[in-house]
Amino acid sequence: MIGELPDPRLNDKRTINGWAIFDWANSSYALVISVAIFPIYFLKATEGYDIVLFGREISNSVVYAYSIAVAYIILTVLSPLLSGIADASGRKLVFMKFFTTLGSLACISMFFFVEDLSHGWIIGSIAFILATIGFSGGLVFYNSYLPEIATEDQYDRISAKGFAYGYIGSVILLILNLVVINFPEFFGIKDAYLPSRIAFIMVGLWWFGFAQITFRRLPKDTLIRTGNRIIWEGYREIRKVWQQLQKKKNIKRFLTAFFFYSAGVQTVLYLASIFAEKELNFGTSELIGIILLLQLVAIGGAYLFAYISKTKGNKYSLILMLVIWALICCAAYFVSKKIQFYFIAGAVGVVMGGIQAISRSSYSKLIPDDTEDTTSYFSFYDVLEKMAIVFGTFSFGFMEQWTGGMRNSVLVLGIFFILGIILLVSVNFRGVTARSTS
Question: Which of 239, 253, 282, 405 fits a 20 to 30 Å CA distance from 83?
Fold first, then answer.
């Protein structure tokens, strides 16, 4: 209504800062657990043990890859349901607390995953799967709060604040863990594995502790009585988008390309540290140093490819990044020295941030202007990305198990990027206009 005053409860600085602190809290899991410390600890703690799954002996790195796949299979199934609950139930804060508690307790439970436990890999895998579900499940409800605490013109600024909080918080905690890992004697620690196990507790406490600020400042739940039909609406919306895409060949080609190259991107991000440890004998502290470097390079890379997209177009920018990704995989196959891996990691940093940002904006531009329910299209996009993670990590693990080497798995990821390039070439970006992704 013209002239209507905005809700005075919106754009409240204290509420917005409280919302952003949740990113500060849970990003510690994304960086410290899933990327930096837990993958290497998992390999070292399970080294020398015979791991038998479904009657077949498999390597510890394959188990780790499969654990990621299992977590995202569950999330792929849950995601539409959680979105429906977030929209319909009025109990967002309850569910947000539940997934936060699940994830943080799962991180803390990793402390009991020790190297001399013959079936410790089961404890480690289950804890990692539950922590991943807690992390992604909480984000669904976290993101859904934005329209409740801010006006639309503030979405981009507040979203950026959350991202910045998450980056700063996770890096601070990672550096603290790096100090403990590098100087254990200063803290009276003699067990070589204990610093990493302490990091798991620190992440869980950091995540759960800072999230309490968010829970106190966000709007309280208002129970909405709804039928099952509304809660299950997420699945119906996904199916409806799929049916519509059968008639929209251009956007369908883009999403097919996105599926393949996203499988490659996400698998590299999740399993690069496993590759570095197993193939090149990188230690935890060395990998943390690389990851900190990646974070800095990724910021510059994101701005670089945003500029390229603005001057040359999204299609040119995406294809250029995919060519770099494919070359990274080829180089990783031949890498034999640590210094070579540093250069590869730097290249990953350049394209890491840009590929996800430009992909989402490209998809936004390809959605027809007369589309009434763009939210359903982005829900479909989110589910497709989770399916790509399942496909990529499972393919990586399967290829390693089948051929006996991770380098062959890296080549498979290179094929995913090449398929993405081939499919993108046929996508028509002419005539599309920018659409807000808020």
Answer: 253
